[in-house]
Structure formats: structure tokens, C-alpha cells
Amino acid sequence: MNKIYGESETAVHAIRDASFSVKKGELLLIVGSSGSGKSTLLNMIGLLDRPTNGKVLIDGTDTTNLKDGDLSSFRNSKLGFVFQFSNLLSDLTVLENVLLPRKIQQSYDTAMDDATKLLRTVGLEKEIHKRANKISGGQAQRVAIARALINKPSIVLADEPTGNLDSINAETIVQLMKSMAEKLGQAFIIVTHERDQFGKVDRVITIKDGRAFEGEEPKRMEVTA
User: Fold this and answer.
1) Where are the domains of the chain?
2) pLDDT under 70: residue ranges of the chain
């Protein structure tokens, strides 16, 4: 898969012939220097941007064939997102923030129970009815992870999820994501420049000059879960 911005002499090849797969329960890191193309790659996997050519396959669905409305629905049901900043709605409670993707999906059956169980899993059962602006940054990021998981997505995408946290909270978030991948069978694809924080992981993809390397060999890109 490729992503090209501009045309002719001004064309910029942000991603060149990248390809890899991710399995359920796998935690995969995407690492690379600033400007290498790792966030562009994550955006295409997350269906926030379309490739210039190539495909993103999720659960056997070729997402390049989806129209915009179907793409949004598919994204909400199949993908969860965690960003550097938690992006919680400050006037809503912790529980209400976690429930938002279900409301967008208009799927209310078991929603309350699922959200409560997830908040218990991330250690926030005592904060469930607090406003989002009354909890700490580390707690907010745990809420964001619970929110990303509420629709039971095939893949959770995290863009620098520890970048706004101190070392103690960052370690908590790292261990939480590893635990979630293992216990819930969720695939996690994480963009980070803090490689050492994550210790042992299932796989690492390195992006350099828009090319994706696993080990020493460049890869072409196909994302499956």
C-alpha cells in the first residue's frame, strides 16, 4: 500500500509499498523517527485516510470499496482508538464517555454492563460517576482505553498513548494494554517513539522514509485481524 501527497515533481511518498498483518491478541508496535510516516500509516489502518493505492483488509473486508457512510459505521464497529490525549468530554461522567461509541452505533443492549465491566477491568470502578474533568491524566487514559474497547473492535489503534504521561502512569498504561491484548484477544497496533517503555512485545514494525521494515526486510502492507 502507498500514500502519496501532491503530484509530479512535488509528490511526497509518505508510505511506500508497506504490508503486514496483525492477529487477534497480538500487540504490535510501529516505531520510527518524527516524520517517518508512522502516523500516516496508522491513519490509513484506522480508515481516517485512504491509500493512494493498495488495500486495507479488516476481518476479510476490503475497506477501499466502502463508501463514506459505510466506512464510518465500519470504523466505529471494527476499530477502537486511543490517542496521546484522552479526548474525553469533560462535562460527561467517566461512564458516559465510555458509552459514547455504543450510542453512535445505536447499540444499547448490555451497553451499561459492558462499560461497567471494562471500567472495573481498568481499575476505575470507584470513579465511574465522576466527571471526566475531575480525574487524573493517567485515569483519563485508562477511560480512553475502556472507551476504545466498548464495541469489541477487531483492532485497537493507539497513537503515542503514553506521550502525555509521567513514567509511572505510562508504565500502568503499557501493562494495561498488554493485559487487554492477552485477556480479551484484542489486537493492538501502537505508534510510539518510546520503544523502551514497552519492553517485550509480539512484533515491531519500523518505519523509515515511508517504508515499513520487520527485521531487515521491507514489507508491503495488508492489515488483517
Assistant:
1) 3-87+153-219
2) 215-225
CA distances in angstroms from 178 to 32, 164, 165, 185, listed in the order given: 21, 19, 17, 10
d(CA 182, CA 121): 13
* Nearest CA-CA partner of 173 in 182, 160, 184, 186: 160
State which amino acid sits at residue 59. Answer: D
pLDDT score, position 124: 94
**What was the pLDDT predicted at 18?**
86
Packed helices 94-105 and 68-78: angle between N→C axes, nearest 10 degrees: 140
Q: Are 88 and 136 in contact (CB under 8 A)?
A: no
Q: Rounded to two decimals, what is the model's pTM?
A: 0.88
Backbone angles phi, psi at 63, to 5 degrees: -70, -15
Residue 115: all three cell numbers together: 462499560
Contact 186, 11 (CB under 8 A): no
Residue 40 CB: number of other CB atoms within 10 A?
Answer: 20
What is the DSSP secondary structure assignment for residue 154, as one 8-state letter?
A: S
Q: Directed axis angle between helix 94-105 and helix 111-121, to 10°?
A: 140
In contact, 145 and 82? CB cutoff 8 Å: yes
Q: In this structure, are residues 159 and 79 in contact, taking their beta carbons and an 8 Å threshold?
A: no
Pairing of strands 211-214, 217-219: antiparallel
pLDDT in the model for residue 81: 94
CATH of 3-87+153-219, one of 3.40.50.300, 2.60.200.30, 3.40.50.720, 3.10.180.10: 3.40.50.300
